[in-house]
Amino acid sequence: MKFGVVIFPGSNCDEDIIYVLEKVMGQQVVRLWHKDHDLQGVDFVVLPGGFSFGDYLRSGAISRFSPIMQEVIQFAAKGGYVMGICNGFQILTEAGLLPGALLHNTNRKFICRNIYLKPQTSQSLLTAQLDPQQPLRIPIAHGEGNYFADADVIKALNDNDQVMFRYCDEAGNITADANPNGSLENIAGVTNLTRNVFGLMPHPERAADGLLANEDGLAIFESILSIVKA
Ligand SMILES: NC(=O)CC[C@H](N)C(=O)O
């Protein structure tokens, strides 16, 4: 499997995801620069976390105009797999590849801590192999992670089983108290209608190595690779 990790000016989780894909999961990874016009034949594109273009205007609002995004949009339109983590998720919503928007956290603060996630569907690469009853402890680190969409979009996401993860407590209850940032219906990650574009605010790549004393994120990468083998 050949992954392409797109690096924007201000990306800061690019090396983390490259480490996990290459060293932990044993996959081939190419680094793609945001000004590139060529995806180098990758099978799967990852937009990593960070502060691309300093989060000016809105997180992801400038990055979505980077030349490579034209290629990513065409790749996704042909069914190519694209995953955005945190800032990557923000870029995907700004580019119109995923529905909704990421607003400022309701407490107006940057939040960096572990949260719990509950898988919501078996119909996505990221969640297909996860135990729906088993909460995953995964770090978040964002100022704009408050998922918002119009009521009809939220309804469509639910009707079409596009919600991949919701924030929950340690016991797996999806409650207002377990919602760190004000996201509607505790939504932490979604897929598109054609189920080839994925976005999530938490960082599984920061919880996928024994040295970090948390490997809950590994299950997400294992799920992806158990389905798409190349
Ligand atoms: N870790 C990240 O990707 C941060 C995303 C974005 N810069 C925010 O603060 O919302």
UniProtKB/TrEMBL annotation:
Keywords: ATP-binding, Cytoplasm, Glutamine amidotransferase, Hydrolase, Ligase, Nucleotide-binding, Purine biosynthesis
Cellular localisation: Cytoplasm
GO biological process, one term: 'de novo' IMP biosynthetic process
Gene Ontology MF terms: ATP binding; glutaminase activity; phosphoribosylformylglycinamidine synthase activity
UniProt keyword Amino-acid biosynthesis, yes or no: no
EC numbers on record: 6.3.5.3, 3.5.1.2
Pathway this chain belongs to: Purine metabolism; IMP biosynthesis via de novo pathway; 5-amino-1-(5-phospho-D-ribosyl)imidazole from N(2)-formyl-N(1)-(5-phospho-D-ribosyl)glycinamide: step 1/2
PROSITE patterns hit by this protein: GATASE_TYPE_1
Active site per the UniProt annotation: C86, H203, E205
Pfam families: GATase_5
Protein function: Part of the phosphoribosylformylglycinamidine synthase complex involved in the purines biosynthetic pathway. Catalyzes the ATP-dependent conversion of formylglycinamide ribonucleotide (FGAR) and glutamine to yield formylglycinamidine ribonucleotide (FGAM) and glutamate. The FGAM synthase complex is composed of three subunits. PurQ produces an ammonia molecule by converting glutamine to glutamate. PurL transfers the ammonia molecule to FGAR to form FGAM in an ATP-dependent manner.
PANTHER family (alphabetical): PHOSPHORIBOSYLFORMYLGLYCINAMIDINE SYNTHASE SUBUNIT PURQ
Subunit structure: Part of the FGAM synthase complex composed of 1 PurL, 1 PurQ and 2 PurS subunits.
Annotated NCBIfam families: FGAM_synth_I (TIGR01737), PRK03619.1 (NF002957)
Identification of the protein by name: Phosphoribosylformylglycinamidine synthase subunit PurQ
